[in-house]
Amino acid sequence: MVKAATLAGRELYNTLYEHGYHTDLKSWRGEFLMFTACEMSLWYNLSSFLDIGCSHGLGVQRLWEQGALTASGVDVSDKAVARARGARLRCPPQANQSTNDAACGFHASDKLRNANIAQTLSHRNATSRPPWPLLTGRSRCVPPCFQRAPATALPFADGSFDAVMSTDVLEHLAESEVDAAVGELTRVAKRFLFLKISNRKEHWPAKVPGANLPAALHQTVRPRAFWVDRFAGAGFTLHHALEDSRAYRWMRRFPKMCCSLVLQRRGEARLPKGIGEERLAFLRGLYWPGGGSAGGAGGAGG
């Protein structure tokens, strides 16, 4: 009897979603990266995000709620996209396989009014908040809000988004796919990348009858330097790693938290322009312990 081929990509993740993968719609491992993205969006005037490997869409929803940011999501699995449309756009089941949101409770054209992080910043002292107004009223997403697409072939034009976010996704790629994915992320991201990439093996414990699953879902398990070098080769250099920043140094005690990276396009000002020295000093201390000489971050402050 010929053994069935090992599942990969779309077929693998459709099968997993059909058998209990990511069923908790309130669970997501990217909260700290998302908070950093939303706060930096205020300082660096970032308006639009793409979440790659969005699963059930909680990360996209959090960008809407916390940052009032235009945010869309893609996932390699049709099942994940349907789940995201149902959970985040409140689409009826018959509309979950569509990219049209007319029958849904929320729509791409909705204007986002509330930004929880902006409200939090408004209560800080002048040094620890941006000097310009905190914007709301952006459209919910670049339509469609959720669609199926692999990280290696994104259906967007160059520079379609100010930033790309991806949490616990890139390690799932085969190493032969890494360069294509890096090329796609850096192609559609205009300015910043917010990435959480695991450096540990993960094994899928369940058995799916009749399915030949891979021994591990994490196919490319590499140290932080591997990913920093790959993205540097595509024009994005390390701004900072969350575990090195003042707010998140506690992450170093928990290996499973590694690695959360903020990268910026080469030539982008490392610090936002148009703010005074006191605010610059605050940001240096927030992101770079010791005053702003983080190794490998590329480029001087702007």
Care to describe what's here?
- With 302 residues, the chain is an alpha/beta fold.
- The protein has a single domain (9-287), classed as Rossmann fold.
- Helix content is 28%, strand content 15%.
- The chain has eight helices and nine strands.
- It has helices spanning 9-18, 31-44, 58-67, 78-88, 116-122, 178-188, 224-233, 277-287; strands at residues 48-52, 70-75, 111-112, 138-139, 146-148, 161-167, 189-196, 236-241, 260-265.
- Strand 6 (161-167), helix 6 (178-188) and strand 7 form a beta-alpha-beta unit.
- It is globular, with a radius of gyration of 19 Å.
- The termini are far apart.
Question: Mean pLDDT, as a whole number?
Answer: 88
The total of beta strands comes to 9
Radius of gyration from the alpha-carbon trace, in angstroms:
19 Å
Q: Could you say which structural class the secondary elements and strand pairing correspond to?
A: alpha/beta
| Strand residue content | 5-15%
Can you say what the CATH homologous superfamily is?
A: Vaccinia Virus protein VP39
Q: Please give the order of strands in the largest beta sheet.
A: 5-2-1-6-7-9-8
- Reported by name, the CATH topology is Rossmann fold
C-alpha geometry: globular
Low-confidence stretches: 290-302
Helix content: 25-40%
Number of helices: 8
- In this structure, how is the largest beta sheet organized? 7 strands, mixed
Give the class-level CATH name.
Alpha Beta
Elements, N to C (H/E)? HHEHEHEHEEEHEHEEH
First and last CA, distance: 64 Å
Q: Would you identify the CATH architecture?
A: 3-Layer(aba) Sandwich
